[in-house]
Design goal:
The structure holds 3 protein chains of 3 kinds. Chain A is built from 13 helices and 10 strands. By secondary structure, chain A is α/β, with parallel strands linked by helices. Chain A folds into 2 domains: about 240 residues, Phosphoenolpyruvate-binding domains (TIM Barrel); about 50 residues, no CATH class. In chain A, the strands form 2 sheets. In chain A, strands 1-2-3-4-5-6-7-8 form an 8-stranded parallel beta barrel, surrounded by 6 helices. Chain A has a two-stranded antiparallel sheet with strand order 9-10. In chain A, helix 12 packs across helix 13. The radius of gyration of chain A is 20 Å and the shape is globular. Chain B is of the alpha/beta class. Chain B folds into 2 domains: about 200 residues, Glutaconate Coenzyme A-transferase; about 240 residues, Glutaconate Coenzyme A-transferase (3-Layer(aba) Sandwich). Chain B is globular and about 70 Å long. The two termini of chain B are about 35 Å apart. Chain C is α+β, with helices and mostly antiparallel strands. Chain C has one domain: Ribosomal Protein S5, domain 2. The longest helix of chain C is centred in the middle third of the chain and has 18 residues. The radius of gyration of chain C is 12 Å and the shape is globular. Classes of the chains: A alpha/beta, B alpha/beta, C alpha+beta. Chains in contact: A-B, A-C, B-C. Chains B and C meet through loops of B and helix 1 of C.
């Protein structure tokens, strides 16, 4: 995959796994999430951080993940662990690093600096290790735009982390997510302005599939690219909702074809099905077709 | 001598009078004369057949050393009958006993003691587990255990290969003359299908109940005309272990993934049409598959004609929703099954002969469309092992597995690729309990393999987006994950013979060469 | 590498392996208990030995209680226990002695 493709790849489902639990990390890819998030941070007890690194390294080196992206969530910059976390992640050739509790653009730069050192030390191509930032606090949200623009060569996206965010906002979980509204919206705006991907937080009640579905629909409507997950059971619903329907695909095709045809005849704006169309509609339609292709449901020829 | 599944059948087994397995339909059309029990006629007036105790009954049937006795397993892990009867037999000083049960399980650990003491010298069963499995695997049983499928057991009894001297039949209800039913009482198990053949072919029949009811206890599963004596005891079993409360649907994502694959296989193969028939086994993924049946039935607007086998809540659910025409019951696993067979007019009881006997003129399995079964191991020839565990110890049962696999138009085996560090898909199974020729589709979490003998099914499934692999690919993938295992160490001594449905020999189990625990 | 103290890594959970390392004069001694002893006992011992060799560890007693762990897990637990026993906390040689 080219670097550009790796940056912009499909990330509808990003499934968290505890890097310390052998039974789980060896074949999670059979559930076909788009990304796996191998966790060295909150899922791992304080006195097992070292064990988690050994498990992570050996898993990265021996398991064939069949094209599923491997992102490692390292410990926060306020812990003694993050530097060794970066070393093992780069040495293991993981696809990327998730920076927990990211609050400033400097956080990103600090991590990238250590990634570069590690890439050199371990013979990994410079720029290989991508980066994403997890915003978990009000300050992180305020600085979202700067964080998104901090490292255009590596930073592919940002995510909001609901648990810590809610705590610092002194709010609690509500169905419908009103307490998350400000955080989500600001982060989305920042991500789109910076041209990076944007992911929503985990839904912790794995038995409440109806509540989960509603939240995923809201995520899609708000414009998120994907969502963090904690169980394979959640993957199918996310893929279903984030995948364009055949109807949406057909519409997108019509838009792209129509604009091209009209442009060839020197016409820039016209009406199709009673709606005004011009070239501004093409990127959105192309994105739909791209998403359909990446999701494996595209049967046309554009 | 190599048989049709390439297993070596030792001369000593052939000398016992056995033929090697030569294909599932080797005996199709063969003529034979059925055996018959030796019975006493009772024309005189009778008040009751009830005796005061099991001991009295053992005396009354003129029990002797060397007899073959039988039991059913409708009480599953909650059975008390085998242990109650065996304790009396042993206390009374009898020895050289052969137990020919429809199945034996962990409830029967005390029998292991009697085996080690040399009192029980023969075991014939479908299932062999727990301590009994261990002592047999370590060579403590004087003669090789004979393991048969449910259908094969009936055939062996009816043909006379097995002669039962005394059948002890636990019954949730019985009247004073021995009309016994599986329904009602304190230990309701729903049906008594496994015991029917015993009642018809044993020389002596003793019904043991913990709930004597008024005469006549009609309609009977076991008829008084075949019963010699009735004994009333306090408890024939533990109701909590006879019928589990409904097993919660598995939420394990792996089980659900495989169950979904199963449903897609069914949906996309030619037998999936209005009125089709179906059976599941127990166990996580096959039970989970039930849950995915309903949506595809509704989606295509078709109904099941009938479901057979061990009945539990999911099948009852389909019946109550009008999505299946009838349930024909061989045993009930849970309270839902028991309640349903007690009350629903389209939930019927059947004998094991009607279910799966290859020796009669037609068993239900002969008309079965789909069956979903589990496996401990499956090899690259699609042979299945459900009986020998990863430590070489006997801990399973062929049950209805070989019967339904042989009968079903599409037999689906569902199993994870590996279990811990054990490869389920292997080069050669430790023991063949179901021959590969009867296995059509293998569903694993890593993909689906179709038996090359079924190009029709392969073609049908290639039209879907199911992840199809060859079985060799799956086996290689399994070994790549867990490493190539060293072979289990066995000694020479044969501890068990696996009979095929028709009484030929599928495989033998030898003594495991490890210290007995 | 010098083994200074006893250390343990791993759990008794299914698919995991618990490895205990103790200093031991003169040789590598391995005591193994495994739920898949018959099929994989030999391979597990070999994996432990190879991993120790790579880490240049020679004077240890290793107690292994295996619950069906795959090779990558066995290696990870041995490596972790060794470094704990050696008192090393940073600068691990990923890709070198650790493979």
């Amino acid at each position: 995959m080219t670097h550009e493709k790796r940056m912009r790849r499909l990330r509808r489902s990003m499934m968290f796994l505890n890097a310390q639990r052998p039974a789980l990390i060896k074949d999670a890819y059979i559930y076909k999430p788009d990304s796996l998030m191998l966790d060295l941070e909150d899922a791992v007890a304080e006195n097992q951080k070292d064990a988690a690194r050994f498990s992570l390294y050996n898993a990265l080196k021996s398991v064939d993940y069949r094209g599923v992206e491997r992102i490692v969530r390292i410990n926060g910059l306020d812990t003694p662990h993050w530097q060794e976390d970066i070393r093992v992640t780069v040495a293991g050739r993981a696809d990327g690093i998730r920076i927990a509790k990211c609050e400033t653009a400097q956080d990103v730069l600090t991590v990238v600096e250590h990634i570069e050192k590690a890439e050199e030390e371990f013979g990994v191509e410079k720029g290989f290790t991508l980066v994403m930032a997890a915003l978990e606090s009000p300050l992180g949200i305020i600085n979202a735009y700067d964080i998104c623009k901090a490292c255009p060569e590596r930073l592919f996206g940002v995510a909001i982390s609901g648990g810590d965010y809610r705590k610092s906002m002194q709010a609690s979980f509500n169905p419908g997510g009103i307490e998350m509204m400000g955080g989500r919206a600001n982060m989305l705006i920042a991500a789109r302005a910076a041209g990076v991907q944007c992911f929503d937080t985990v839904f912790t009640d794995v038995d409440d599939m109806d509540g989960f579905r509603e939240e995923v629909i809201q995520n899609k409507q708000m414009g998120f690219d994907g969502k963090s997950l904690i169980s394979p059971r959640q993957i199918a619903i996310v893929h279903e909702i984030f995948t364009p329907t055949q109807r949406e695909i057909r519409n997108a095709e019509r838009i792209v074809r129509a604009v091209r045809e009209q442009a060839a005849q020197g016409i820039g704006v016209f009406t199709l099905d009673g709606k005004m169309l011009d070239i501004a509609f093409v990127p959105g339609a192309e994105r739909t077709i791209e998403l359909a292709k990446a999701s494996g449901v595209y049967e046309g020829d554009l | 001598m190599k048989n049709a599944v390439n297993r070596d059948i030792p001369q000593e087994v052939l000398d016992m009078g056995y033929e090697p397995f030569q294909g599932s339909n080797y005996k199709e059309g063969k003529e034979y004369t059925k055996a018959a029990p030796t019975v006493r006629m009772r024309p005189a007036q009778q008040e009751t057949k009830v005796l005061a105790s099991i001991r009295e009954a053992i005396k009354a049937v003129e029990f002797r050393d060397g007899m073959t006795i039988s039991f059913h397993h409708h009480f599953r892990e909650g059975d008390y009958v085998v242990n109650l009867v065996m304790k009396e037999i042993v206390d009374m000083g009898f020895k050289d006993i052969t137990i020919a049960a429809s199945s034996l399980g962990q409830a029967h650990d005390p029998v292991a003691e009697y085996i080690e003491q040399g009192i029980v010298t023969g075991i014939q069963t479908s299932g062999i587990r727990g301590k009994m499995g261990e002592v047999v695997s370590h060579g403590k049983l004087k003669t090789p255990a004979i393991l048969r499928s449910h259908g094969g057991r009936v055939r062996a009894i009816e043909s006379g290969e097995v002669h039962i001297d005394v059948a002890f039949i636990g019954a949730p209800t019985s009247d004073c003359m021995g009309n016994a039913r599986g329904k009602g009482g304190k230990s309701d198990c729903g049906v008594l299908g496994y015991a029917v053949v015993d009642s018809k072919y044993a020389d002596k029949v003793v019904v043991i109940t913990d709930c004597l009811v008024d005469f006549p206890n009609f309609p009977p599963s076991i008829e008084a005309i075949d019963v010699d004596y009735v004994v009333v005891v306090d408890e024939i079993g533990n109701p909590k272990k006879i019928a589990s409360s409904a097993a919660r649907f598995s939420t394990d994502p792996r089980d659900l993934l495989m169950a979904e694959y199963c449903a897609k296989v069914i949906e996309n193969t030619p037998y999936f049409k209005d009125g089709f028939s179906f059976q599941t086994g127990a166990g996580g993924p096959s039970l989970a598959a039930n849950r995915f049946l309903e949506p595809i039935l509704v989606k295509h607007g078709i109904k099941l004609g009938w479901i057979i086998g061990g009945i539990s809540a999911p099948a009852v659910d389909l019946l109550n929703k009008g999505l299946v025409g009838a349930l024909i019951d061989t045993q009930d696993f849970d309270i839902a099954g028991i309640e349903s067979v007690n009350s629903h007019p389209r939930h019927f009881e059947m004998s094991t002969s009607q279910y799966a006997n290859p020796g009669n003129k037609s068993a239900f399995v002969n008309k079965l469309d789909y069956v979903i079964l589990a496996a401990l191991e499956v090899d690259v020839n699609f042979n299945v092992n459900v009986i020998t565990g990863s430590d070489g110890v006997l801990r399973g049962a062929p049950g209805g597995h070989p019967d339904t696999a042989a009968g079903a138009r599409c037999c689906i085996i569902v199993t994870p690729l590996v279990r811990g560090r054990m490869a389920t898909i292997c080069e050669d199974v430790v023991t063949v309990t179901t021959p590969g020729e009867n296995v059509d589709v293998l569903v694993t979490d890593y993909g689906i393999a179709v038996n090359p003998r079924r190009p029709d099914l392969l073609e049908a499934l290639q039209k879907t987006n199911l992840p199809l692999r060859t079985i060799e690919e799956l086996q290689k993938e399994a070994y790549a994950m867990v490493g190539t295992p060293d072979p289990l160490p066995f000694k020479e001594r044969i501890v068990a013979i696996l009979e095929a449905r028709d009484g030929t020999v599928l495989d033998v189990v030898r003594q495991i060469d490890t210290p007995a625990t | 590498m010098q083994i200074k103290q006893s250390a343990m890594a791993g759990t008794l959970e299914s698919s995991d392996v618990q490895v205990t390392i103790e200093p031991h004069e003169g040789s590598v001694e391995i005591e193994l208990e495994s739920s898949v002893m018959l099929q994989y006992g030999r391979q597990i011992k070999a994996c432990v030995q190879d991993t120790l060799k790579r880490l240049n560890v020679n004077d240890v007693r290793v107690t292994v209680v295996d619950k069906g762990a795959l090779e990558c897990t066995i290696k990870a637990r041995v490596q972790c226990a060794v470094y704990r026993a050696a008192g090393v906390e940073t600068g691990f040689p990923w890709g070198g002695a650790i493979q």
